[in-house]
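Need the bound structure for glycyl-adenosine-5'-phosphate, inputs here:
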Amino acid sequence: MTIPREQVMDKVVALTKRRGFIYPSSEIYGGLSGFYDYGPYGVALKRAIRDLWWRHMVELRDDVVGLESTLMMPEAVWEASGHLQNFVDPLRQCLGECKKRWRADKVLGEKCPECGGPLDDARMFNLMFKTHVGPLEDRASEVYLRPETAQGMFVDFKNVISSTRVRVPFGIAQQGKAFRNEITPGNFVFRVREFELMEMEYFVRPRQDDEAFDYWRKERMRWYTDVLGINRERLRMYDHPKESLSHYSKQTTDIEYEFPFGWGELEGIADRTDFDLAVHQEKSKQDLTFLDPETNERYLPWVIEPAVSVERIFITLLLDAYDEDVVNNEPRVLLRLHPNVAPVQVAVVPLSKKQELIDVAQEVVKSLRGQFRVEYDQTGGNIGRRYRRQDEIGTPFCITVDFDTLTDKAVTIRQRDSTQQERVAIEGLSARIGFLVSGARR
Ligand code: GAP
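Answer from helper R.:
Posting the output first, comments after.
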C-alpha cells in the first residue's frame, strides 16, 4: 500500500515503542536527548545487523581480521588524528525566547527557525565527549570517548601486522560504541549521541586506492540490496565534492537512502590515503610501515574505509519495511523485513491451549531453536490476532500446530507477505524453513 512518506516516520516510531523495539533512554526521568534504549525485538534486530555485517566483512573473507579497541583513548590520539581541531560543527544559539542551539550550516538567515529571535555569532563546537581517568580531574587525566572506532585500527596497526600473518591488501574490522555530542540529534535514531559503529580499514599499496575504493562502493551497495533486502530504488551513491570532504579524506562516496525527510547518508566509504598512519607515525615516533614480502618495499599503506552505524541501518530497515494492507477485510500493519534480519524468523503458534497441541508445538520449537530466531506464541487471542502481532514485528513465517497435526504429523507455514499457507511434514520443517529464510526474496 502506498503510505504518504511524511507519515511513515511517525508510524514507525509508534510501532517501535508499542512493540518493544526502542524506548527513550531513562524515560521515567524525562529522557535524555539523543539517547535510546533497545527493547527485546530491537536488541534482536541490532544483533542480526551486527552479525550479518561481521559475517560478510570478516568471516566470509580471508583478507579481513577483527579488532576491539577501547572506547576511551588519550588526548594524544585525537590530537594526532586531527579530531581535536577538526571534529567540530559550527554552533549558533538563539538569543530570543527559546534559547535553542542550531548547527550554523543548517540554518538559513539570521533568525531562529523556532521563535524568530536573533542568533548569536557562529562558534566552533567540538563533538567529542571528554572525561577524566582516575581520581584527579586535571589536564593530565583527560580522555575522550571515541567518536569513531577507526583510530583503534590505526593505533593498533603495528600490533596487528607483527602478531598476525596479514599481507597488504588486507582489512581490520571493528564494531563498537562511538559517542558524538551532536548539536541537533534527531530523526529518531538517525542521529544520536551514542551509537554503534561498524568500520573496516582496508589497507592497500600506496596510490593503489582507486580500484579498492570502487570495489568497496559496489560491494557495500550489494550488501544492502542482496543481504539486507533494502529497496534498490531508495538507494543511491553520492560522491562528495572536494569542499565537503572530511579532513582526512581524498574522496568519499555516501550510500544514501531516501528517508521520509529526504535523501540522507546511510554509509560513508572514504579514501583516507595514508593520512592516519602518517600522523600517528609522526606523533608517536613509532615505525608504522609495512614491509611488503612480495616487493621487499617498506611503506605506509593507504586506506579505504566503509563505515556505518547499526542505528542508521536499523532505522533504514524499519522505514523501508513498514507497510499497511488489508487482509480478510481488516487493515493490518506489517514490517516486510528480509528474513535475514527479522528479529523473529519463525513464530510457532498452537491453535488452542489444548495440552496435546502445546506439547507438539514445544517440540517443534525445540527442533528449530539454534538454527533460527524462534518465538513460541501461546498467549491469548485468536490465531488471527497472533498472526497480526507477528506481522507487526516483521516475522516472515508463522508455524501453526492444529488438531490435524496430531494425526498427519504436519504443520502449516504461513508467509507474512502473501499470507499464503502451505502444509509441511514436521520431519522436513527445518529444511523447508532454512530454504525459505535463505532463499527468500521480496
Ligand atoms: N570513521 C569514519 C566516520 O566516522 P562518519 O561519516 O562521520 O565517518 C560514519 O560516520 C557513519 O556513522 C555514518 O555513515 C552513519 O552511518 C553513522 N553515524 C554518524 N554519526 C551518527 C550519529 N550521530 N548517529 C547515528 N549514526 C551516525
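Comments: The longest strand covers residues 262-273. The chain has a mean pLDDT of 95.
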